[in-house]
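WARN retry 2 of 3 for item q-0093 after timeout on previous attempt; input resubmitted unchanged.
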Amino acid sequence: MRIPAPQPGLVIRYAFLWSHEKAAGADEAAKDRPCAVVVATPGDLRAIVAPITHLEPDDPSASIEIPAAVCHALGLDEGRHWLRVEELNRFVWPGYDLRPIPRQPETCVYGMLPPGLFEQLRKAIVARQRARAGRTQRRE
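OK item q-0093 returned
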């Protein structure tokens, strides 16, 4: 599988571990899903990712709906998708949890978020972190 260098806005397939899974004692995610790279540090590469889900959030401030045209351009499946900003995973890149895209085993990359959508994601995550309303699972 081809694994590129991480960069903010890159959408990858990843085994995202939710906080409720971790609290129940899980070390592995129950499901692989698209995730957006939010932070990528140089040197000893570390990445922080935000999950993409079909589940409409109870709290609208906890997510950003992805426009249908962006979902289509990324090759995501049908239906509505949300970038969740209240839950993040942090890991050493590339780690063990990158997964190939279904029907495209040569890559884990869906594409890039448009700059405006990435900036909206970044600002929402910063606001949640400042309010201490976000959670980051360390997967290192």
